[in-house]
Amino acid sequence: MNLFGGSSTGSFGGGSLFGGNQQVVVNYNPMKDVEVASPPDDSVSSLQFSPGTLTSTFLVAGSWDNNVRCWQVEQNGQTIPKAQQTHTGPVLDVAWSDDGTKVFTASCDKTAKMWDLASNQAMQIAQHDAPIKTIHWIKAPSYSCVMTGSWDKTLKFWDTRSPNPMMTINLPERVYCADVHYPMAVVGIAGRGIIIYQLENQPREYKTMDSPLKYQVRHEMPNNRKKK
């Protein structure tokens, strides 16, 4: 039985009680899940719903097909494809600005982009020496910026109006995952390391620790992909 909304076929002992072959088809979808219209052509790496500042709900997804897509989500769960943008490598992470007007994307092509949804234009805002694994928007009382974490072992903070980073923090290992909840940010790196940053005034290291988990903290890549 398929628990994720597909159809499955099954038989009892290979046949019916009367000697013939009989199949039972079951459509099992108790949560009434709805597949998005025009889904990506490859594995999905990141999903983000729009912030509550918007009157409508939107969903963006980054994929290994090099694209980031945006859908409008209706009250009944149905989705309407609205637009998409492209990188020259797989899109590993996506993030919204706090006002919902822009989407930030991080890619294996070593760049990050800012997608202005009103004009449907995307521009490069960040550059690393290796694939960019994480991207987050930081809205602080005294500054706003984009934080990117990369496999080049750096964490960078960007003013989207400048091609150069506001700050670069060198790390002991590659960035595998990160999250921001102002005034704090947490970054998971290779080797089970976790680094916590204080974001008030300007980013600075607050605490380092080893993960209590047995295995590496990270977002898993699809099984058919190898880290570059």
TrEMBL record:
Transcription regulation among keywords: no
SMART domains (alphabetical): WD40
Record flagged with keyword Repeat: yes
WD repeat placement: 37-81, 84-125, 125-168
A Pfam family the protein falls into: WD40
InterPro entries in UniProt: WD40/YVTN_repeat-like_dom_sf, WD40_PAC1, WD40_repeat_CS, WD40_repeat_dom_sf, WD40_rpt
Keywords recorded for this protein, A-Z: Repeat, WD repeat
Superkingdom of this protein's organism: Eukaryota
PANTHER family found in the cross-reference section: MRNA EXPORT FACTOR AND BUB3
Protein name, as recorded: mRNA export factor-like
